[in-house]
Amino acid sequence: MDTPPVLPPGRPAVLAEHQAAQFRLLADNVPVLIAIFDAVDRTCRFANREYARSFGLDEHSVLGRTFAEIIGEEAAREIAPHVERVLNERVSVNYERRLERGDGRPHWIEVNLIPYVPAGTDRVESAFVLISDITRFREAERAARESEERLTKFMQASMEGIVFHRDGVITDVNPPLCELVGYTLEELVGRTALSTVAPDQVEVVREVMASGRETRYPTAILHRSGERIDVEFIVRTLWFNGERLRMTIVRDLRPHLDALARIQHLAEHDPLTGLLNRPAFMERLRERLSRPDAPRAALLFIDLDNFKRVNDSLGHLEGDQVLATVAERLQGGLRASDLVARFGGDEFVVLLEDVHQRRDVQTVLNALLSVVEVPVQADGRDLSVTPSIGVAMYPEHGDSPEELLQHADTAMYLAKTAGRATSRFFEPAMAQNAYADLVIEAELAQALTADEFVLFFQPQVDAQTGHLTGAEALLRWRHPERGLLTPDAFILVAERHRLMVPLGEWVMHEAARQARDWHERGIAEVPIAVNLSSMQFRLGSFAKSVAHVLKTAGVPGDWLELELTERMLTDEIDRLPELLQSLRAQGLAISIDDFGTGYTALNQLTRLPLDKLKIDQSFVAVLPDDRGAAAITRAVVQMAKGLGLRVGAEGVRNPRQWHLLAEWGCDELQGEVIAPAMPAGEFEAWLAARGKPRPPGLDI
Fold first, then answer.
1. Is residue 239 part of a domain?
2. pTM for this predicted structure
3. Residues 464 and 590 grouped into a single domain
4. Which run of H or E residues covers position 377?
5. 592 FRET partner, CA 20 to 30 A, in 94, 552, 614, 615?
6. Residue 201 and residue 282 share a domain
7. What confidence category does residue 433 fall into, taking pLDDT thresholds of 50, 70 and 90?
């Protein structure tokens, strides 16, 4: 066994061998690499097992090798300065080296070089090498350092406030926290963590701190200025540098709460006008009516008259501007406590609370009518917008939101039929009428598919000769239970519920089909006049719809004549010239029906491509006895002649009226004196039996 050279000379061999064995046992079992090198030739005189193995040797083969042979030339050159210092200066040297492991991971060692100088000499005989693996400690230091760096970077980079405190005393904060509370780092460190908590939240926060639990909860803090800030605390416990710290992430909830408020506002309000939407209004109405002390109230249902015309003529952007302006005016004309909502389209609803009598409501109605009627600027011009308003009173007209709304809606429809810019209070009889309307509406929809409608035809004749010049198609409904119905019984319901469009299209198709049939059979080669509804006429695609009818029926345009009312002229004056010109380009004749009862300005007639005026039968019915009616009728005939228009008169009931109208210059007549309206078959029989007609004499 190799024996270290440190044993003093002169000892007994047995003792030396025993000590050498003990030294070997100790050296091979300590967690340190141990070697002894000769100071002269630099060869290894002793090495423990771990030292030899770390260089691929064993404790026998390592002996006699120089340290350059053992650790490599490059490493030997690297540590040479340390070795020389030990040998020359006879001092211990300590240094660290970084080695590379086979797996590429760094390996750190600490080396102690200790000179051995025998007693009584001043020469270094050998040097002890003690090598400790300190990789674990360096990695722990690196991990701690990186952890601290990460924590610092996290604190600095985080957009949310972070507070560290030990036993309730702040040890560190990040810049966002300083900005949130308005204090500097120096001002906060050393203060209690509760010092910036809102007073009413201190006990809650104190309890969480005392419990030591990790949690998150909403609370509030105070800014230096005293402003209260809603926040969320996210609390964690961590160990850092051997100390137990509490970390609190302080999340500013103001942006979140603002976003929630915006979302809530969008969910409850109309995006165009900013008014309450239908669900939100109904919910608030329900809440107010459910209160035991709910006061008397009035529910107003407001619909703008002919608003669709604004969208069709100016476009939806301008229409939206009109709606926004109306919404502002409605709010401006009401109290802050009143609820206002837009239900969609041009429908608005208002709740007036604490109104005791109808005259109180009427005062508000008058104010709303006056402010809404003020012209609205759109597309560079003034537009007149008028409302129709229905009113239901609480509690006499209903005690639920749905019932009040239904009754106010019913009253609004009656206001609309009475004319523009009007209001109506709900009456119980209206509910019965509304129910009847629902029944008729359902029956009308079914009648279209069940082929229950039929056209009657009333002859139109030349006022001078009596010859047939045309026929007016008049709609009739063969009701399965009520018998034959004229339009007076159902036309208003059809218009209110938008059934007039498909019904009007059916009338045009059937009239065109009948005209073709009569022309093909040589029975009546005259145009058939069709009455148009305002709803049908307002369609932006009306001209295309007429063209489709003509193409489908296979008839030319001059086989049909379209009759408009004066009211339709005033409602559609802006788009009329282009629309009528488009219809006349298809060959159709255009006549104005019931002339004299509307408000058509004479200058409008000069701008429109028309063919005929038909004098309203209310004037004809009182001829010749009513001097006023006679004067108006003669004036209308002369005016129409001056404009180059043909003149017709309807409702002619006796020969005296016939001769008088013919004398004044009327071109066409129709009425009971000639023939009533008849189904197509009876019309054909009447025409065949009549032969060659002549105007009746005055003695008839």
1. yes
2. 0.49
3. yes
4. strand 376-378
5. 552
6. no
7. low
pLDDT digits (tens, 9 = 90+) for 612-637: 999 988 889 899 888 888 888 998 89
Question: How many domains in the chain?
Answer: 4
Q: Which residues, in sequence order, are CB contacts of 588 under 8 Å at separation 6+?
A: 546, 557, 558, 560, 561, 562
126 and 147 in a common domain: no
In a domain, 643, yes or no: yes
CATH number of the structural domain spanning residue 447: 3.20.20.450
H/E stretch holding 107 reads strand 106-116
Half-sphere exposure of 37 (CA within 13 A, CB side): 25
- Amino acid at site 439: V
- From the list 452, 429, 454, the residue with the least C-alpha distance to 442 is 452
> By C-alpha distance, which of 26, 72, 74 is closest to 50?
26
Q: Which of 321-330, 363-372, 461-470 holds the top average pLDDT? A: 461-470
Q: What is the pLDDT of residue 467?
A: 92
With contact defined as beta carbons under 8 Å apart, do 171 and 165 qualify?
yes
CA distance 239 to 587: 94
Whether residue 161 is found in the same domain as residue 60? no
To which H or E segment does residue 428 belong? helix 428-450
Whether residue 77 is predicted with pLDDT greater than 80 in this model: the reply is yes
Confidence label for 384 from pLDDT (cuts 50, 70 and 90)? confident
Q: Is residue 35 part of a domain?
A: yes
CA–CA dist 571, 312 (Å, integer) = 12
Are 626 and 482 contained in the same domain? Answer: yes
Q: What is the chain's alpha carbon radius of gyration, rounded to the nearest angstrom?
A: 53
State whether 447 and 595 are in the same domain: yes
What SS3 state is found at 516? Answer: helix
Considering the domain architecture, whether residues 407 and 451 belong to the same structural domain is answered as: no
Range of the domain at 36: 13-133
Alpha helices, DSSP H only, in 398-427?
401-417
Average pLDDT, the chain: 85
Residue 296 and residue 206 share a domain: no
3-state secondary structure of 165: strand
Q: What are phi and psi of 158, to 5 degrees?
A: -65, 140
- Whether 474 maps to a domain, the answer reads yes
Residues 6+ apart with CB under 8 A from 494: 444, 500, 503, 533
Q: Which of 148, 138, 128, 125 is nearest to 40 (CA)?
A: 125
- Rounded CA-CA distance 489/461 in Å is 28
Residues in the chain: 700
